[in-house]
Structures are given as C-alpha cells and as structure tokens.
Amino acid sequence: MPKQNKVPALIGVPTDLGASRRGCSMGPEALRVAGIYPVLERLCGQVIDTGDIDGPRATQEATSNGYRHLELAVTWSRMLSIRVYEALTNGQCPVVLGGDHSIAMGSILGIARYCRERQIPLTILWLDAHADFNTPATSPSGNLHGMPVALLTDPDSEMLRRMGADYAPVAVENFQLIGVRSVDREEKLNVNTAGLAVHDMRQIDELGMRAVMRAVLDKAKARGGHLHVSFDIDFLDPLIAPGTGARVKGGPSYREAQLCMEMIYDSGLFGSLDLVEINPALDIRNQTAEIAVEMSASLFGEQILARSSGSKR
Ligand code: MG
Ligand code: MG
After folding, report:
1. How far is the CA of 234 from the centre of ligand 2 (A)?
2. How far are the Cα atoms of 1, 21, 135 from residue 31, in angstroms, in the given order?
3. Which residue, of 4, 11, 90, 113, has the greatest Cβ tally within 10 A?
4. What is the pLDDT along the chain (313 residues), one digit of tens a residue?
C-alpha cells in the first residue's frame, strides 16, 4: 500500500496580509527551523527548497468592497499559483509554507489549473477549525483568510476575476472540510445553501476520526486523481498547537490528527500540501511549527512500525 513519494518542493509564502493578527509571515522560517527539510528528506530521499516568494507588503490599511488587501493578496496568489503549477508539472509535490490561509487561493488555483488541463479529478481536504466560507457581505473584518473557500467556489468572485483568464472556479463538490467547530452565523447559512461537505467536530466525536476519514477518502478514491491537503494549524486543539491567531477549543488530539494524516498517506492520492496560519509571535518555543512538521511526516509516510505491503488499512 505505501506509495512512492514524489519529491517535495518547499515554497515559502511569508505573508500575513489576509489576517488581522500579524505574525504568520514568519511561518516559513519557523517550519524550516523546526526541521521540515531534513524530516521530509529522510522520508522521501530528496527535497527541493525553492525559497520564499517575494510578494508585496502592505504599507497602509486598504479595504474596498468589503475586502482587506485584495489587490496585494491577488498578487501573492498569482505568484504562488505559478510556482505550484510549475512544481506539479515537474512531477514534484508542492509543500506550501504559509503564511495565512488566504494563500490557499493561489495554491489551489494553480493545482486546479494543472488538474483541469490534464482532466484529472481534484479533491481538496480542508483541515480547519473554521469553514473559511465568509464573503465580503458576511465578514465584519474583510480579512481574506476567512474567505478562501467561498471565493474559490464563487464564479463571480472579485478575486477570481482579478486572477485572470487562466483560472477557473473550483466546484463546491471538490471540497471536504474536516475538524470545523467555529462558523459565523451568516456564514452558516451560506455553507448550508452551497451544500459544502463539512465534517465538523461533533461528527468526529460521534463517529471517530477513523470512520470520518474512511468515508472522506473512499469518496476521494472513487473519484481518483489528485488530493490536496490545505492544513490550517488551528485544526489542531490549541492545547497542542497554541501558536496561531484564531484558536478554537475542542479540536482533534495529537493522535486523532496523526491518524488523519496516516490515512491520507495510505490512500495513495496525496499530491500537495498547504501548511498555514502558524504564527511564531504567538507560539511557545516553536512547538506549533514542530507539531506541523510531525504531522507532515505522517502525511509523507512516517509510520510507527513498518507495515508489510499487504497490510489492510
Ligand atoms: Mg483557515
Ligand atoms: Mg482556521
């Protein structure tokens, strides 16, 4: 069952334009300090660190039409989408080191473009305490890190229009949200209206992580193709991952999250990763970046014991 790993291509995206609490622009370096490179090298044999994207910085507050820093975020997203697309074209596995979660608009648009051109089905596992389905009409802050799922799936979103003709909306059916436990009131209405697949913490409590992931991955396997993991570190319980700006109690434990990663690896579909919302300014001795590296190791095939190729999972 274990799958031959593609070479991971690290892409640093040091921006926090999409969030009010600053600091996750330091995320890429925190992940490097925590050893993302040597850990993945040990598991995959080779890693390429493509360095950090040098995108624009905000010199002043800019909110228009309910979006904060949309123009700058679109520039970052366009730069990232090209880097992700190139890595996939080179047969690599993009590992995007964020940055706040708005950057997933760039990585996912690049992946979706790659898949669309090759007619490969795409499944996106959105691991997050939040649904990230706000719109300019429902978001009080205009912060883009609360909107990426809504903006990626809305064919009329200003973000998509500004990204240009190479990019197309991603269907709501491609998303599976896991670990959700904080959804704004109006956002909730939009989630239900859109029919977004949300596996919230109540579902995980009642059925267990194993059953929830089994159902999600069976669906992804039936579709086949590419599986992208967009991992917001606030998915994890804040007791184990305190270094993030929008902590929500009651998240998956260390072992629940690790099982989730191990099962994704076992599916053989995993092809790209975002690691976002790690904020070293709020962390304790880099423990949140370290746990992100440990979770990434499981996603790339780290196992407690080596299993025989015939083991049934
Ligand atoms: Mg998020
Ligand atoms: Mg979140």
Report:
1. 5
2. 29, 19, 30
3. 11
4. 455 679 999 999 999 999 999 999 999 999 999 999 999 999 999 999 999 999 999 888 889 999 999 999 999 999 999 999 999 999 999 999 999 999 999 999 999 999 999 999 999 999 999 999 999 999 989 999 999 999 999 999 999 999 998 999 999 999 999 999 999 999 999 999 999 999 999 999 999 999 999 999 999 999 999 999 999 999 999 999 999 999 999 999 999 999 999 999 999 999 999 999 999 999 999 999 999 999 999 999 998 876 544 444 4
Q: From the candidates 100, 234, 283, 290, which is the catalytic residue?
A: 234
What kind of architecture, by CATH, is found in domain 7-299? 3-Layer(aba) Sandwich (3.40)
163 vs 276: CA distance, rounded Å: 21
Using a cut of 0.90, tell me whether the model's pTM lies above it.
yes
Q: How far does residue 228's CA lie from ligand 2's centre (Å)?
A: 17
What's the gap between Cα 189 and its chain centre?
A: 23
Q: Mapping DSSP to helix (H, G, I), strand (E, B) and coil, where does residue 68 land?
A: strand
Question: Pairing state of beta strands 175-180 and 197-200?
Answer: parallel
Residue 199 appears among annotated catalytic residues: no
From the list 176, 201, 198, the residue with the least C-alpha distance to 188 is 198
